[in-house]
Amino acid sequence: MNSTLSHGYRVEAKPGFDFGRSNPLQKQFFFYYTITITNVSGMQAQLKTRTWHIVDADKEVRTVQGPGVVGETPWFRPGESFEYSSFCPLPTLTGMMEGQFHMRSIDGTEFSIDVPRMNFAVPEEYIDRY
């Protein structure tokens, strides 16, 4: 598990591989991840938007931006956490993803918190199956 701490928010990221949803003949490899965001500051804020930077093994870069995460824009009181899981399809056996969550505090101040880099790789035990 990777973690970052910025602006009083700890973000933990745990990546994995989904063999059942992957299709190597179509160059589609599904990686999943679980993110836990914890407010370790005294400042209440809401997650408004996110930005992801995704790089595959061919060095192709995609930037994905959008509102909230998994359809939610959670509020964080001091000490509160929010956990969610999602996925990232890639056309290659390896890649990485990192980004930011863009927040707005209760007083209207906007800031971004870093999401740690997640390295994606098809595990060795699946390589022979492809």
Describe this structure in words.
With about 130 residues, this protein is mainly β. It has a single domain, classed as Immunoglobulin-like (Sandwich). Helices cover about 5% and strands about 65% of the residues. The chain has 1 helix and 9 strands, in the order βββββββββα. It has one helix at about 125; strands spanning about 1-5, 10-25, 30-40, 45-55, 60-65, 75, 80-90, 95-105, 110-120. The strands form 2 sheets. Strands 4, 5, 6, 8 and 9 form a 5-stranded antiparallel β-sheet that branches. The chain has a 4-stranded antiparallel β-sheet with strand order 1-2-3-7, with no helix packed on it. Strand 2 and strand 3 (about 30-40) form a beta hairpin. The mean pLDDT is about 95.
CATH superfamily: ApaG domain
Largest sheet, if any?
5 strands, antiparallel
Instruction: Assign the CATH topology.
Output: Immunoglobulin-like
Count the DSSP helices. 1
Q: How are helices and strands ordered from N to C?
A: EEEEEEEEEH
Percent helix, as a range, is: under 10%
Q: How would the global form be characterised?
A: elongated
User: Total domains, how many?
Assistant: 1
What is the top-level CATH class?
A: Mainly Beta
> Structural class given helices, strands, pairing?
mainly beta
CATH architecture: Sandwich
Report mean pLDDT, rounded to a whole number. 95
Number of strands: 9
| Radius of gyration, taken over Cα atoms and rounded to an integer in Å | 16 Å
Strand portion, in percent? Answer: over 45%
- How far apart are the termini? 27 Å
Weakly predicted, low-confidence segments = none
